[in-house]
Amino acid sequence: MEEEKSVSMETMVNVHAVSTSGQSQHSPELRIVLIGGRELHGNPSNKSATGNIILGKTVFDTSRRTAQSVVRQEEVHGRQVTVVDTPGWWWHYPRENTPELDQIEIRNSVHLCPPGPHAFLLVIPVGIVFSRIFKPALKEHLELFNERVFCRTIVLFTTDAPCSNKHLKDEIRMWPELQWLLRQCGNQKHVLDINNKQDSTQVINLFKKIEAMVAENASSHYSIDSARGNVLREKIEAIAEGASRRVAAVQAKRRRLRALIEGGKTPPTHLRIVMVGAQWSAKSSAGNTILRKKAFAVHQGRTTEYCEISHGMVAGRQLTVVDSPGWFYNQTLKDTSGMDKLEIVNSVHLCPPGPHAVLLVVSLTSAFNASYQRAVLEHMSLFSDKVWKHTLVLFTKADWLGVKTVEERIESEEGLQWLVEKCGNMYHVLGHTNHDGEAQVTELLEKIEEMWAGNEDPHYEVDPTRAELIEARKQSGAMLAKKMRQSTQRQANILRELFRGERQQITDFRVVLVGKKESGKSMVGNKILFEELFDTAWMKKEFQDQKINKMCKKHQGNVAGVHISVVEAPGWLTDTVTPDWAKSEVLRSVSMCAPGPHVFLLVIPISKAFTEKDRKALVDLLMPFGERVWRHCMVLFTWKDWLNERSIEEHITQKAMT
Question: Pfam families from the entry (predicted)?
Fold first, then answer.
């Protein structure tokens, strides 16, 4: 019964007990830094709202993302309280994906409350799915501070309704990584009801916990290095100065190009635009914003599988916009499927005689790191080098900038500086929900016209004969796919007839998963057993190191009355010769499910190309079992969302043709 009391009631009892010992016991000053991840799956981070509740006033802006560390002070319950709000990171992304500008601001937060914070409040919404991928990301982001950060951290669970002790315990019990985090923080935790601003006791009790933690740390605060603080300030100032210089250079170039237009170089009234970029960069949404209509389908998890074309009249100009399939943001060209490559190449041929502008779409939500830069450079090589003269970088997810400018973001990352300079300093920021959207689109079209005016070639030239070859290849692939579907259906019908009425009850089923690294084998195993038992590549920090020998993993479970054993064999890397230990482990996988597996599931990711090296590696691994092994093999394609409305047969046949 005691556990069912709400946390706020527990707070009232504790505060009452403390108050009887005299209010003079509390600290005269408290310095607090708020840290944590971004909103995820509809769960808001509540960092800024937490700061407002602590200070008793709306001093932090909750209407937009916190892109810059902000400090506010108020006198609260007899204490001078300083709170610093910081940018959040994606819970499931490693630190290398967090923009450098955000990392600088997070580091700088402790220098905004000298001589250092008494407490870090790690804000976590109650109900968040705190999966295993959060742990390495959390550790990496907390390394932005020194090693003493954990002993000065309180895990602050936020909720929008009263939360009982039992409910909180159940939440913690559900997630082992959350339990690990609490152990790291000495089990220091607190619950804050965001919607119960009138309950001052929850804030008072939080202060008491901070003061108790400070006492345990020998009445000391988190110490900061003033020299490091000076370096950070100089870096922030240098970024701002570089941004100002870039703005001036861009404005000067635009005036020069606009003068050419006003001097008589009349731009075309019909602009042809092609959108290219990584998956989930909001290409399709950007196309809709430009055309001011829902021309391209957009919804959660959907990817563009074919080039799509749409037309419209915008700001007095006739527009043709082509959307194209994206590549995985850090994926090399050789890993991109042949069908996606074919569609990307085809995009520029869908607006003959060629596009006036290629918009290279880059999302501001992730760092433009070395792997992202390499992916862009390799995929743009599908076109000729001349494409860069007609390319404009289109930044999306503008809300990520907050109070920062896009020029500051560019100056903070060498990769972005390289990219915009590769495009002749032609770039634009587009926000899909901004009330100034119409003005943004008009300005973008003006920049495209200015880029056109500065080019000797009126548009990116395409080879019409190549377009015909691409179309012929696609048509042949579609015919082959149709024949494959018909053949598969006939085979399925025959098997059903042969075994009609002879089906035996299966009580035991044994599966071996085989596939290259990052193919989704672990995910498949978890789905088969309806439980998260196999660690996925997100959690295996060493999965990129081929030298570390992996071992087969086995898990079992009961599903629909059937005892299922799943053995995952270690994967291989595409660029290396299949090592002997991997071959030995595949042999061992069979002995781990004696008397032998019913099926080998050959796991193939649709999102990546299946290369000749992959085929050879697979044959090498299965060769010791003899030719009969193929009778027990089934190909299991993962990353189904990559197909969308495209059939798996089309994917297979187009791969064969490319």
Answer: AIG1
